[in-house]
Write a structure and sequence with these properties.
The chain is of the alpha+beta class. It is about 55% helix and about 10% strand.
C-alpha cells in the first residue's frame, strides 16, 4: 500500500500563531496531534496526513470560532510559499504566474490539484481534492486555499483587485460575512459543479505584469521547483480518495470517468489502481450510496422521493429497489426501525 504524500509544515505552524493571538496555548494541541514545536519550525519540515487531520480537529475544537481557516488563508503571502512563491513573484505576467502555480502546486500542498485555463473571454482557476480527507479537513483546506489564492492575486497586482467570481463547494459558513474582506470577490457558496474551488475573471487581467518580474530569478526558481517535484512522493491510497469524492458529492455521484479526469488518468487506469488495492468503483459507489441514504433517512428531513433525487436516482422506485437490494428492507421499513441502544 502506497504511503500518503507528506504536507509542508510551514502552513500549519501558523495555526499555532493564530491560537496564541486568541489566548489559546497551542502546545497541548500540537502534542495531541503527535507533533513537537521544534518539528514545525524546521524550514523544510513535513507532516503526515494523519497528523494534519488531528491538528485541524484539535484547533477547530479549541478555537471556539468558525473562521480559523479563513484567517489562516489571509496570512499566507507569496513569501510564505517558499521557492514556488519566488517563481510566482518573478513571472513576466499573471498568466505565466498561474501556469507556473498549476505546474508546481503540489509543492505547496498535495491535498488539492490546481487547473488553469485561459481563453479570449475569461480565465478559470479550479482546485479539486486529490487526497482522501475527512469532511472537516476538506472544508478547512478548501477555505484556506480559496482565501490564500485571492491574496496571491492581489499581491501580484499590487493594486485593487478587479471584480471576479469565487465559487466554493462548501456550505455557507457562519462567518460568510467575512468574505466581504476579499475585495472584488463575488461569492457563491454551495457551488454544485463538483467539489472544490472555481475562480472566474477577465482574460485581460492575466496579461498584466507583476512589479517584480525577473527572468533570471524565474529561471532559478523553476529549476529548483522541477527538482523538488521530481523528488516528491506522488501516490496516496486511491480507494480512500474515491470514497471521499463520492461522500462529498451533491446532486448525484461522480462517475469513474469524472474522477479519473480529476487525476489526469484514464478511467481504465484509475480502475486498475482500485483493483490493486482490492477494491472496485462499483463497490465503493454502492457503499457510499448506502451510507448517504441511511444518513438522510435517519435525519428525517427529506421525503423518500427527495432523497432519491439527492442521490442521483431518476425516481423513488429505483432508489427503493436499490436500497432493499443492499439492506434487505425498504427505505420506509428502515426508518421504522428502533434506534440503536
Amino acid at each position: 500500500m502506497a504511503a500518503y504524500p507528506e504536507l509542508p509544515a510551514r502552513y500549519y505552524l501558523r495555526l499555532g500563531e493564530q491560537l496564541q493571538r486568541l489566548g489559546v496555548d497551542p502546545l497541548p494541541l500540537l502534542l495531541q496531534a503527535g507533533l513537537r514545536p521544534q518539528q514545525l519550525q524546521q524550514p523544510d519540515a513535513l507532516l503526515r496526513l494523519e497528523q494534519v487531520e488531528s491538528l485541524i480537529a484539535a484547533v477547530n475544537a479549541a478555537a471556539g470560532r468558525s473562521d480559523i481557516a479563513f484567517e489562516l488563508g489571509r496570512t499566507l503571502r507569496l513569501a510564505t510559499h517558499s521557492i514556488v512563491g519566488y517563481g510566482i513573484l518573478s513571472s513576466p505576467t499573471l498568466d505565466y504566474a498561474m501556469r507556473l502555480t498549476s505546474r508546481f502546486f503540489r509543492l505547496l500542498t498535495p491535498t488539492l490539484r490546481m487547473r488553469y485555463r485561459l481563453d479570449a473571454a475569461a480565465a478559470e482557476i479550479r482546485f479539486e481534492p486529490v487526497l482522501p480527507l475527512s469532511h472537516a479537513a476538506l472544508l478547512f483546506h478548501l477555505e484556506v486555499v480559496a482565501v490564500a489564492m485571492h491574496i496571491v492575486l492581489r499581491e501580484l497586482l499590487g493594486e485593487a483587485m478587479p471584480r471576479y467570481q469565487l465559487q466554493l463547494s462548501i456550505p455557507e459558513p457562519p462567518h460568510a460575512a467575512r468574505y466581504a474582506e476579499l475585495e472584488g470577490a463575488r461569492m457563491q457558496f454551495g457551488w454544485p459543479d463538483g467539489i472544490g474551488i472555481r475562480m472566474l475573471m477577465s482574460a485581460a487581467l492575466m496579461g498584466r505584469a507583476p512589479a517584480l518580474a525577473d527572468a533570471a530569478a524565474l529561471q532559478l526558481a523553476e529549476d529548483r521547483c522541477r527538482v523538488l517535484l521530481h523528488d516528491a512522493v506522488s501516490e496516496g491510497r486511491v480507494a480512500d480518495w474515491v470514497r471521499m469524492m463520492l461522500r462529498e458529492a451533491s446532486g448525484g455521484l461522480p462517475s469513474l470517468e469524472d474522477l479519473a479526469h480529476t487525476l489526469n488518468l484514464s478511467a481504465r487506469t484509475l480502475d486498475r489502481h482500485l483493483q490493486r488495492e482490492g477494491s472496485g468503483f462499483r463497490a465503493l459507489q454502492q457503499e457510499i450510496l448506502r451510507e448517504r441514504a441511511c444518513a438522510l433517512l435517519e435525519a428525517g428531513r427529506l421525503s423518500v422521493t427527495q432523497i432519491a433525487l439527492e442521490l442521483g436516482y431518476t425516481d423513488a422506485a429505483n432508489f427503493a429497489r436499490a436500497f432493499k437490494r443492499d439492506t434487505g428492507m425498504s427505505p420506509r421499513e428502515w426508518q421504522k426501525q428502533p434506534p440503536p441502544p
